[in-house]
Amino acid sequence: MLTKSSAIDRLLRERPHLRERRFGLPNIGARLDGEEFNPTVQAIADAIDFYGYEVRDENITTIPDTDLGSGNPTMFPPFPPAVAAMKKSLDCDLMYRYPYTEGADEIRQKLLDYVEREGFVNTNPYSYDDIDEKGLSVHNITFSVSTSILFNQIINILCNPGDVVLVTGPNYGLFTIRTERAGAEVEVLKLEKEDNFLVNPSKLAKRIDELNESLQQVYHRRKGYVPRVTAFLNANPNNPTGKVMGKNEFSLLYEISDICMKRGVFVIDDLVYRDITYDKDNLAMPIATIPGMFRNTISLFGLSKSYSMASLRAGFVVADEVIIREIINRIFQTMDSAPALIGEALVGAFNGSEERYQAYNSYFSHLRKIYVYKFNLLKAMVCGIDAIAPTLKKRVSETVTNILGEEEARKILAGIPMVSFPENLEPESGFFAILDFTQIRGMKYKGKAIRTDEDLLRFFYATSRTRFLVGQSISWPYDELVGRITFSLEEEKLVRGITNIHNAILLLEPKDDYIIRKNIYADQEQMARIKVDGWKTAYDSIVSSSFLNSLNYEEQTKRYQASFEEYKDLVFVAVRRNEVLGYACFNPMPNIDWFDSELVSLYVKPGETGKGIGTSLFLETCKHLASLGKKNMVIWCLSDNEKAIQFYQELGGSIVKTKKAKIGNKYYKEYGFYFHLK
Fold first, then answer.
1. What is the CA angle 307-295-351, rounded to 5?
2. What is the largest CA-CA distance in the chain?
3. How confident is the model at residue 499 (pLDDT cuts 50, 70, 90)?
4. pLDDT tens, 447-483?
5. CA gap 249, 283 in Å, rounded
6. Using an 8 Å Cβ cutoff, are 621 and 600 in contact?
7. Cβ atoms of 167 and 233 closer than 8 Å
8. Which of 336, 469, 476, 521 would suit a FRET pair with 175, their CA atoms being 20 to 30 Å apart?
9. What are phi and psi of 359, to 5 degrees?
10. d(C-alpha 491, C-alpha 306), whole Å
11. N- to C-terminal Cα distance for the chain?
12. pLDDT digits (tens, 9 = 90+) for 48-61
């Protein structure tokens, strides 16, 4: 009888990632169409996975770490009217009923009352009998289990394969991943320092036009559909910058929405942080309140961030009823309906009654003060106590002193050495702040330099089991080394977490006294000498002495100088002032089996070995090849070169192939080391 594998074995063959028991974040997922994420989104996915899983150790189940990257709002009682509405619902005798897919009309009507009181208006309404004087009806609203689920459905509705969703950078990284998992493409509009990290309308228009023109050129010869930019994700307030566009920025919001409407691009207006805008007189302004913009805008509201109800997972969407119809269809086809209790909580928080607005003003006047205070607590520890308002100094000082003691508090309130907030980037809403760690780039801990986002996280986790999201995970648009820090934690956790960062930085050793750059013609003679000396040192007793004796500086220099123009962009050198300390040659198109790049050679000047120069050259090469879209790299090494073998193994390489290499008149065995460039 034919022996068949078990059902579980078959499933594991088809989904090998399930073999691994994970802690922390689950698997980040993949695109439904089987294509790879584009490099921007893959970088975000890798960074989030690294923060949420890879950087953590095997002790995490018994020894908690310090998570400064959490997305939880501050510990605060949930919005009382929402709780009361749920309790009232549970006390009734109607829980036996299945809810409608779209939600009960009375719930949707209360949500409609709220958005109309906030200024939503449709100046180009349909002619149905139930359309009110604002041009809207209950059919413009539905709700579900979180704005994340609604966002996924919106992307699936708006986008055909190849269509582009434009997002800002910085951004909420998980939305970019969800967009591509749904089969659309993500492109990033960089938010610039010169624009105060707000959307620049002219740059938005130019980016949309460039993308559409590029897509037209790529697809114009193909029959059928031509992809285009279909949506712009406008997070207002922005996650993670906390920047707000309110009524004071009306003209800016009008330009953004007008540019999108004229180009046939929907605006997805993510307003989940709106109610914790610090300035109550300049709350984030919904674009759908601008006359003429409603039908081109999809607005998202939720309980989780602002109303201290993250565990409930409740959100609602307001849009043209054509879009709402299809969202309802998708809800029915995937989950039948959202729990009715979610709707009750939503109308408790979002309705047009005077009682609701009175409770809202009382609740948020208190909550906003907490967020402003906690940000200033963070700021005092990062920039020093004198950086905050005098009215807050005493409270902050007492808080830190009570937690750490006088001596430690005095040190911490002097600020973190070499760490700051990026210019023009203090939050105006929410509970995230971006810290700039660029000044410590190149500094070392136990001989290993901090050069990348991953290095930064490894360092803080190794020294204090502290972690946070890094720039790659939020599409940080500059080369700076940054981290997204939450200040919504309880005071003691926040103070001790920042103290961990402060004390860890004091452990760092000075930066290397050299730089890494592309080679120039003047480097060739020194490079030739390093190669000749390197061979004679490393391969003594390995390669025949006759071959080693045949090597000389002059011939090698001529060879390097003759080939300089051909290979000048394929060589990195480590240089101290004008002295070349080592170099690395690479090939981005080796055409060797299934490897898509190769580190051809790596040499360090005798007397300079053991100082991290080789590692720095190796990492710079990996970073450059990855930026070219390369996924993996091979390095060949003589099988008798024990020092080199140990070096590549410590860097994470594994031997996957062997071959014979002719050196002089003899053949020698070589190992092929495989590296995944992420």
1. 30
2. 97
3. very high
4. 788 988 989 999 999 999 999 999 999 999 998 999 9
5. 10
6. no
7. yes
8. 336
9. -65, -40
10. 19
11. 46
12. 887 887 777 767 66
Asked whether residue 9 carries a pLDDT value surpassing 90, the answer given is no
What are the phi and psi torsion angles at 411 (to 5°)?
-65, -45
Structure tokens at 73: 């709002």
pLDDT band at 271 (very low <50, low <70, confident <90, very high): very high
Tens digit of each residue's pLDDT (9 = 90 or more) over 552-566: 999 999 999 999 999
User: Can you tell me the distance from the alpha carbon of 664 to that of 557, in angstroms, rounded to the nearest whole number?
Assistant: 19
What the block records as the tokens of 353 is 């009654």
Residue 307 in tokens: 């109303």
Which helix (H) or strand (E) element contains residue 660? strand 654-663
- What is the average per-residue pLDDT within 62-77? 90
- Tell the residue number behind the tokens 């740059």, with chain if given: 203
Per DSSP, 102 falls in state T
Cα dihedral 111, 116, 120, 123 in deg (nearest 10)? 120
CA distances 17 to 30, 47, 562, Å, are: 11, 18, 49
The residues, ordered by sequence, that sit 6+ positions from 106 with a Cβ below 8 Å of its Cβ are none
Distance CA 43, CA 49 (A): 10
DSSP, collapsed to helix, strand or coil, labels residue 64 as coil
Q: Judging by DSSP bridges, how do beta strands 141-144 and 266-270 pair with one another? A: unpaired
Judge whether residue 47 has pLDDT over 90: no
* Residue 260 C-alpha from the chain's centroid: 25
User: Taking the alpha carbons of 143, 149, 154, 156 in that order, is the dihedral positive or negative?
Assistant: negative
